[in-house]
Amino acid sequence: MRRTALLASAALLAGLLPWAATARAADEPPVTTVDRFEGEVPFARQPAEGIFAWGGDTDDPPALRLADRADAPEGAKVLTGTYDISGYGGFTHDYAATAPAHDWSAHRGIRLWWDGRNNGRKITVEIKDGGAHGEASELWTASFTDDFTGWKQVELPFTDFAYRTDYQPVGGIDHILGLKEMWGYSVTLPPGAKGDFAMDGVELYGTADPALRASVTTDAPVHPVEEGGTAKVKVSVATTGEAPLADPVTVAYTTAGGTAASGTDYTPVSGTVTFPAGTASGTTRTIEVPTRRDRAAEPAETIPLKLTITGAKAPADTPQVVIDAHGLPYLNARLPIRERVADLLGRMSLAEKTGQMTQAERGAVGQGADITAYALGSLLSGGGSTPTPNTPEAWARMIDAFQLRAQATRYQIPLIYGVDAVHGHNNLTGATILPHNIGIGASRDPELAYRTGVVTAAEVRATGVPWDFAPCLCVSRDERWGRAYESYGEDPALVESMETVIQGLQGRANGKDLSRNDKVLATAKHFVADGGTAYGSSTTGTYTIDQGVTTVTRKQLEDIHLAPYQEAVDRGVGTVMPSYSSLDLGDGKGAVKMHARGDMINGVLKGRMGFDGFVISDYNATDQLPGDRAAQVRAAVNAGVDMMMVPYSYKEFSTTLADEVRAGRVTSKRIDDAVARILTEKMKLGLFEHPYADTSRAAAIGSPEHRKIARRAAAESQVLLKNTGGLLPLKKTQKVYVAGSNADDIGNQTGGWTVTWQGSSGNIVPGTTILEGLRKAGGQVTYSKDASAPTGGHDVGVVVVGETPYAEGAGDVGNGHDLTLSAADRAAVDKVCAAMECAVLIVSGRPQLIGDRLDEIDALVASWLPGTEGDGVADVLYGKRPFTGQLPVSWPKSESQLPINVGDTAYDPQFPYGWGLTTLAEPPRGGTSTLRALASRAAAAERHGDSRTGRALVTRARHLVQQKAAGHLTQAVSKPFADADHLLLTGRYGKAVEKLAEAYRAA
User: What is the pLDDT of residue 14?
Assistant: First the structure.
C-alpha cells in the first residue's frame, strides 16, 4: 500500500495497522524528510550530497540498492542491501559539503522505517553535528534492537544520542549536540553473520525536548570508598552553549537498593538540590553518603544514589557508592599468588567466572556500564580504536574510567586492557614507532630486539595499558602473505634469536617485573604455523593466503613453526594467541581451525611445553569455527582457549558459555583452570593493588631517548643488496637528486598497524621522513617525487620506492596487491638511473620484484618499514653508521618462485637469505686458505661455547664470500650461503664457515 493511500485513509488505518503513522500534535513542527529513497539522493560521496557504503575491509561495505517494494511505507522504493561484515560496515547519507548545514534543533528526534528480521541484533544510528562537513563532524550515536518482524517505525529521540567515544574524525569539537549544524546520518550494520536489510522514510519528528538545552551529570558513575568513609558525589549542571540556566533544575536524590544494608552498612540520605534559573553552566553541588564500619571481612557492597531530575537531561547512569571489599585473603598482597587466586576463585559465581573469560572492544561498551553488569574481565582497543583526543592523557583517563566500573563488581577484579602495540605503541599518535619485525630481523641484533621491547613496554604502560598483543612469532614462509612484515623472518632460528623482545616487554622470565610501571604482559602469536598457510587456501572474504591452511608433516611443524613457542614459554611469556588459520597434519583430521585444536593448545602448548599463562583468542576468531554459537564456544574453550576476544558479542559469549557449563558440555574444572590462569597474570601485573594508570613515565613517550633507539633500529634494519663501485655511502659534497613515492611519506614508511589497523599514506604521525633525514644529514638535496624536475647537475640519485600500507589479509598478494613496483615508481627509477648513478631504496613489508631493473641500478637497499625515524636511514646512506643488515627472508627473482625459503632443495633467489653487503671501513681480505683457517677456529669456538668469537669468525667469512660473489650470484653460491646463516643462528659456527667456503668456491 502506497504512502499516499495511507494518508487518504489515516483515520481508518490508525486503528487497524500497528505501524500506521499517528496524527501530529497541533503544536508540533511539520515532519522534515531526510530520505525517501525514491532516487532523489544519489549514491555519491563528498563533496556532493549522497549515500555511500563503507567498511573496515574490502568486503565489509554492504551492497546497497534502491528497490521497488509494494509494501514500501514511503513512496514506491526502499533502500535495501546485503552484508557479510567481519570487522565493521554500514552506510551514510551526507549532505553536500558545498551547501550550508541543516538545522534540526526544532525537532524531538529522528525516526525511520525498518523491515525487522527479529534476529536480536543491534542496529546503530549515528548523527553528524557541527564541523566542516559530514566526514569532519562530531558523531553522536544511538541504537535499536531488531527484535521484531516486518516494517516498524523506529523513533530515536535526540536525548538518546551519546557522544561517540571510540572514534571521532575531528577529535571532538565542543562535545555538545547543538543540532543547528547537522550533516546527515549513518547506520552501522551488525558484524559476524550474513544478513540483509530494508529501510525507508527517514525523517525528523516532534517538538524539541527542553532537556536538550540542559543536562545534569555526576563526576563519576562509581564512587569507591573504604568502609567507614564518606563518599562525596558531585552533581553538576551544564547547558548547550554554556549559557546560564533559563529555567530552574531540581535534583531529588535518595539512597535505595543495592547490596549494602541501609542503616547497617551506611547512613541513608535523601533530599533535593536546586539549581535556580540564571545558574552558570558548570555549577556543582556535592551529596555526601556516609558509610559505617562493621569490622567483618566482606566483598564490595553497592549503594545506588537514585536521582530524579526536573528540567534537564538526567545522567546516563545512576551513580553508585561502593564500599570497597576488605579483609579477604585474595586482597592480601603478602600472600603467595597461588593462595590468593584459590581464595578468590572459590568465592566467584559462574557468571563472574565467564565474565573474566570475556574480552570486549572498548567501543562496544560505551561508557562502560556493561563492565559491571557482565563482570567483564578485559577490554581491548582494536587497530585504530582510540580515545578522543588520541593523547597519552586521554588514554589514561579512558582506561581509568573503565577500571572504575570494575570497582562496582562484587570482588572488584580489575580489568586487563590490551592493545596491538606491534612496533611501538602504534595506536597512539606521537608514540615512538619502531621498524616492523621484518626490519628488526634484518638487524640480526638480539640486544636491539630487547631494546625495542623496552621502549614499547614503557610507552604502553604509561598510558594505563598493561597488556600487549605482541610479539608475532610467526615464521613467514611466503612473501605473498599480508602479515609477512610482522614476522622476524623465514628461519625459525632467526625468530628465536629475536625473542629477547619478550624480556624487553615483560622483564624477568619469572614474572617478578610485571608489576613495574614500565613493563607489560606479552603475547606470543599466532599459535601455530600462521606463516605457513598455502597461497589460495584462505576462505576468509577475498583473502588469498592469510587465515588459510598450513599443510605440513609433524616434523616440519616441530622444526619450523613450533620451535619459537618453546623459546617463548621458556622466557615466561604471559599469554599466547592462537591463529585464525587451519592446520592439516595429514593425520586424517583434515584442516582444523587452530582455535579448535585441543591437541595443540591443551596438548602441546599447555601440556608438553608447560605454558602456565593464559590463551587469548584472536578477534572474533570463534565465529570461524563450524556450528552454531554454542558449538563454537564449546569447541574453543574445551580446546584450551581461556579468554575470548568477542569485541561486540561479549554478552552472547558470556551467557552461552555459562549455559554450556550448566549443560555439562564444558566442565567446571575447565572454567576454573581458565579463570585461575587469568587471575594469576592480573596479580603478577599488580592490578589488584594498582588498577589505575601510572602516568609518571608518560614524558618518555616519543622522547628523544626512545627515538634514539628507534633511529638505531632503522639504521640496523637497512640491508645493502648491491653497491656497484662503492656508490654508498654518499658524500656530503655530492649533489643528490631524490625521487620516488616513499621518500617523503611517513605513513608509507611506517606501514600498517600505525594509528589505524591498515595504516595510511601521508603525514599521519610525528617523525622524520627519509627525505628529511637526508636533508638533516647535511647533503645537497633536490627532491622531485615523480622525477619530473630536471636531473642535470646532480652527482647521484636516490630513488625511494615501494609499497603503501596494509595489514593482514587485506594486504595479501592477489587481494589488490602484487610484488611489483607501481608504474610511477618504475618511471622514477628509469628516469633517474638513466641520468646518473643511482641508489634505489625499497620501503616495503616484503621483497619487491626488481630483477628487470637490477642492471640499471648501481646500489639497491631493502629499507623495509623503518618507522618514524628516517634519520636512521640517512645515517647509513651518508656513512654515519655502516650498513650491517642481512636479509631475513629470501629475495625472489619472480613470483613463480614463491614460496622460496632457506633450506629448499631447489634454491636460486635474486638474493639469498642472510645476504647483506657492508660498508665497514676495512674490506675483508683473504681467500680459500683464509676460509679454511676461519673454519678451524670457528669449530674450536663452538666446542668451547665461545659464541661471540664464533659469530665474528662466521661474519668475516660471509664478507669474503659477498665481496667475491656480488653481482654474479648463482644457485651454487646462494644455497650454501643461505644455509650458512641458518647454521650460524643455531650455533654451528664451524659448519657455517664450511658452507661459506663452498659458496666462495662456486662464486
Answer: 34
Count CA within 13 A, CB hemisphere, residue 287.
29
Which tens digit of pLDDT belongs to each residue from 128-141?
A: 999 999 999 999 99
Please give the sequence-ordered ranges of beta strands (E in DSSP) within 95-206, or none if there are none. 109-117, 121-129, 138-146, 149-157, 162-163, 182-188, 195-205
- The grid coordinates listed for 442 are 634484518
Is 618 a catalytic site residue?
yes
d(CA 86, CA 541): 9
> Distance between CA atoms of 284 and 281, rounded to whole angstroms?
9
Is the distance from CB of 230 to CB of 290 less than 8 angstroms? yes
Coil/strand/helix, residue 903: coil
Catalytic residue among 74, 138, 445, 808: 808
Q: pLDDT tens across 431-456, in order?
A: 999 999 999 999 999 999 999 999 99
CB 518 within 8 A of CB 465: no
Report residue 25's pLDDT band, with 50, 70 and 90 as the boundaries: low
Quote the strand ranges of 646-759, DSSP E. Answer: 719-723, 735-739
Checking if the pLDDT of 279 tops 80, the result is yes
Residue 909 half-sphere exposure toward CB, CA atoms < 13 A = 28
| DSSP 8-class letter at 957 | H
Using alpha carbons, list the distances in angstroms from residue 424 to 429, 430, 693, 805, 927: 11, 11, 18, 16, 43
What backbone phi and psi angles, to 5 degrees, belong to 636? -70, -45
Res 508 pLDDT > 60: yes
Average pLDDT over all residues of the chain:
94
Question: d(Cα 225, Cα 565) in Å, to the nearest integer?
Answer: 44
User: Residue 663 and residue 661: Cα distance in Å, rounded?
Assistant: 5
657-709 pLDDT, tens digit each: 999 999 999 999 999 999 999 999 999 999 999 999 999 999 999 999 999 99
264, 326, 724 from 878: Cα distances, Å:
76, 63, 16
What lies within 8 Å, CB to CB, of 183 at 6+ separation is: 94, 95, 101, 102, 128, 129, 131, 133, 134, 137
Q: Which stretch of DSSP H or E encloses residue 951?
A: helix 947-965
Distances in whole angstroms, Cα of residue 624 to Cα of each of 60, 203, 396, 629, 653: 16, 38, 34, 10, 14
Q: Which helix (DSSP H) or strand (DSSP E) does residue 447 occupy?
A: helix 446-461
Q: Which residue has the cell 600498517?
A: 752
Give how far the C-alpha of residue 681 lies from the chain's centroid of Cα atoms, to the nearest Å.
21
Residue 75: pLDDT over 80: yes
Instruction: Measure the CA–CA gap between 277 and 275, rounded to whole angstroms.
Output: 7
Instruction: Classify each residue of 485-523 as buried b or exposed e, where b means 16 or more C-beta atoms within 10 Å of its C-beta.
Output: bbbbbbbbbbbbbbbbbbbbbbbeeebebbbbbbbbbbb
**C-alpha atoms less than 13 angstroms from C-alpha of 445 in its C-beta half-sphere:** 21
Q: Which residue in 210, 178, 24, 207 sits closest to 106, CA to CA? A: 207
Question: Using CA atoms, how far apart are residues 749 and 772, in angstroms rounded to an integer?
Answer: 12
pLDDT for 503: 98
| Whether the Cβ atoms of residue 771 and residue 743 lie closer than 8 Å to each other | yes
Check residue 817 and give left, alpha or beta (phi > 0: left; psi -120 to 50: alpha).
beta
Residue of 703, 809, 800, 741 whose CA lies nearest to 424 = 703
pLDDT at 873 over 80: yes
SS3 for 361-391 is EHHHCCCCHHHHHCCCCEEEECCCCCCCCCC
Q: Which of 265, 479, 618, 803 is catalytic?
A: 618
Mean pLDDT within 385-402: 94
Q: How far apart are CA 787 and CA 827, in angstroms?
A: 8
| Interstrand relation of 592-593 and 575-578 (parallel, antiparallel or unpaired) | unpaired
Among this protein's residues, is 478 annotated catalytic? no
> Distance between CA atoms of 733 and 728, rounded to whole angstroms?
13
Whether the CB-CB separation of 918 and 474 falls below 8 Å is answered with: no
CB 220 within 8 A of CB 317: no
